[in-house]
């Protein structure tokens, strides 16, 4: 049990990587807040966890709303007494738009969810971590947060910003017992394509050669193992950095 009695909040935990992270954390002894916009999906994940003897609670959250973020973190504290691990994983894709085709509305939504949601949840959690003298933040970025041709301009910018936030936070609180790291997954089999709207043919075509060198598509459980390492004390000297988990994809460039 690598996370015995730790209290973890995982966003975007109704599906894909968030679900796999919530399930693995619970199986390692953590009490997990399964937070997602999709409350039915979150409740299903909780049922699966509790059937296996784990401890979890579903909370509906729109990470684009501060009041929902506050409620999510407050629920962890009221239900389980504290917060030890925050996993900012909820995210959506763009439609592969190059900059000339970006719509303000779509840019704002993607940044609200992928970037501002991460900042707001960290801002809410840090005072708890400072008071305890310890805490652990894991942000799901993307290889698109390190390179330019994995999606459209908006998604790439939103994930580059998450990596910047992660590095700054890891550095700022390094002497306060708080660690903050990001995972940069490559292509992983999840439901994220459902969030791709109005695919931009030009943008999609430009990314195709890059998609063509993907060695293989990963499973959410493979990303969850990275999130477990980062959440556990085994990674005690890993801080303010990005762990790429892409099967070797970005080794190509
Ligand atoms: N799948 C990939 O290939 C891939 C690669 C790199 C990074 N990522 C990142 O991984 C993370 C998880 O995505 P996934 O691939 O598991 O996708 P997914 O669509 O399977 O899961 C994402 C979850 O986030 C939830 N969500 C969406 N908007 C939300 C909001 N406003 N508030 C709260 N919850 C919200 C969805 O309901 C869903 O349950 C995302 O940040 C994504 O950008 C995915």
Features of the shown structure:
44% helix, single chain, Rossmann fold, binds nicotinamide-adenine-dinucleotide, 7 helices, 253 residues, 7-stranded parallel sheet, alpha/beta
Task: Offer a concise description of the structure.
Helix content is 44%, strand content 15%.
Number of helices: 7
For this structure, what is the CATH homologous superfamily?
Answer: NAD(P)-binding Rossmann-like Domain
Low-confidence stretches: none
Q: Helix and strand string, N-terminal first?
A: EHEHEHEHEHEHHE
Q: Which strand order spans the largest sheet, edge to edge or round the barrel?
A: 3-2-1-4-5-6-7
Taken together, the total number of domains comes to 1
Coarse structural class: alpha/beta
Question: What's the CATH topology label?
Answer: Rossmann fold
State the name of the first-level CATH class: Alpha Beta
CATH architecture name: 3-Layer(aba) Sandwich
What shape does the CA trace take?
globular
What's the count of strands? 7
Distance between the termini: 38 Å
What gyration radius follows from the Cα positions, in whole Å? 17 Å
Helix content: 40-55%
Beta-strand percent range = 15-25%
Q: What hetero molecules are bound to the protein chains?
A: nicotinamide-adenine-dinucleotide
- Give the overall average pLDDT: 98
Largest sheet: 7 strands, parallel
């Amino acid at each position: 049990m690598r996370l015995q009695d730790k209290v973890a909040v995982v966003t975007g935990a109704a599906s894909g990587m968030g679900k796999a992270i919530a399930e693995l954390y619970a199986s390692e002894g953590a009490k997990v807040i399964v937070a997602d916009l999709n409350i039915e999906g979150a409740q299903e994940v909780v049922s699966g966890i509790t059937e296996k003897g784990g401890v979890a609670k579903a909370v509906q959250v729109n990470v684009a709303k501060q009041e929902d973020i506050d409620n999510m973190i407050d629920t962890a504290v009221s239900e389980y007494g504290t917060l030890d691990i925050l996993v900012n994983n909820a995210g959506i894709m763009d439609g592969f738009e190059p900059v000339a085709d970006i719509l303000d509305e779509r840019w704002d939504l993607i940044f609200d969810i992928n970037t501002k949601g991460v900042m707001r949840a960290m801002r809410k959690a840090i005072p708890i971590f400072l008071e305890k003298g310890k805490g652990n933040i894991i942000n799901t970025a993307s290889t698109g947060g390190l390179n330019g041709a994995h999606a459209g301009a908006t998604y790439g910018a939103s994930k580059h910003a998450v990596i910047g936030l992660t590095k700054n936070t890891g550095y700022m609180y390094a002497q306060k017992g708080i660690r903050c790291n990001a995972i940069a997954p490559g292509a992983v089999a999840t439901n994220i394509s459902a969030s791709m709207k109005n695919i931009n043919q030009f943008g999609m075509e430009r990314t195709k050669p890059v998609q063509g060198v993907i060695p293989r598509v990963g499973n959410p459980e493979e990303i969850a193992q990275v999130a477990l390492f980062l959440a556990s004390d085994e990674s005690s000297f890993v801080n303010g950095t990005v762990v790429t988990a892409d099967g070797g994809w970005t080794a190509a460039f």
